[in-house]
From TrEMBL:
Homodimer. Interacts with FtsZ. One of its GO terms (cellular component) is cell septum. It comes from Peptostreptococcus russellii. Activator of cell division through the inhibition of FtsZ GTPase activity, therefore promoting FtsZ assembly into bundles of protofilaments necessary for the formation of the division Z ring. It is recruited early at mid-cell but it is not essential for cell division. PANTHER family: CELL DIVISION PROTEIN ZAPA. InterPro entries: Bac_CellDiv_Activator (IPR053712), Cell_div_ZapA-like (IPR007838), Cell_div_ZapA-like_sf (IPR036192). This is Cell division protein ZapA. Residues 128-147 are annotated as: Disordered. Keywords: Cell cycle, Cell division, Cytoplasm, Septation. GO terms for biological process: division septum assembly; FtsZ-dependent cytokinesis; septin ring assembly.
Length: 192
């Protein structure tokens, strides 16, 4: 198994596979190109929708290749049935059809692998979206709790301000009484 780093739609991925690095990079570039075409054609699509649409297009190509494979298999069957003798020309034609069939099957296999990879990519993107929604919900909950705490503290502050105002009023009243008592004391003292 080889690990190859590739970039698709600006995101780095590590791909593990049996294919050689050049082939993996080629597949990643193909997906990136197809995804870029989709995003250019429909710039308002989000990443998940663009990935899904790209997957659909690649699957469409896969099915088209499968139809070609089936057509080649039918041609091969027709050639086999059409020639009863095994001549050199028939063998060459047969080899040619087999090569075409092998190429088509390889492309179909690559497309199937690519579809699986894209499905995983779509699942990852969907998980990211869910996680972001959950994070936003947690942030909103934290904001609400903070607002409640702030309001409770503001209410305590107002209550304390009222108590301070009452205490100041009482202190002023006490000072006035003390001053009056001192005046009375001075008067009494002077009268003696």
């Amino acid at each position: 198994m080889k690990t190859v780093s590739v970039t698709i739609d600006g995101i780095d991925y590590k791909i593990v596979g049996d294919r050689d690095e050049a082939q993996i990079v080629k597949i990643a570039k193909y997906i990136d190109k197809k995804l870029g075409e989709i995003r250019s054609a429909a710039p308002n699509l989000n990443k998940v929708d663009a990935s899904v649409l790209t997957s659909i297009n690649i699957v469409d190509q896969l099915f088209e290749n499968k139809e070609k494979v089936e057509k080649l298999e039918k041609e091969l069957k027709s050639i086999k049935e059409g020639y009863s003798n095994t001549t050199e020309d028939v063998e060459k034609e047969f080899d040619s059809v087999l090569k075409k069939l092998e190429v088509a099957e390889n492309k179909a296999s690559e497309s199937e692998k690519e579809i699986e990879r894209l499905k995983k990519l779509v699942e990852e993107k969907e998980k990211e979206v869910i996680n972001k929604k959950e994070s936003n919900a947690d942030a909103n909950k934290t904001d609400e709790e903070s607002e409640k705490k702030i309001k409770a503290l503001e209410m305590k502050l107002k209550d304390m301000e009222k108590k301070v105002a009452v205490a100041e009023s009482m202190a002023t009243e006490f000072q006035n009484k003390a001053y009056n008592l001192q005046l009375n004391y001075e008067e009494l003292k002077n009268k003696k």
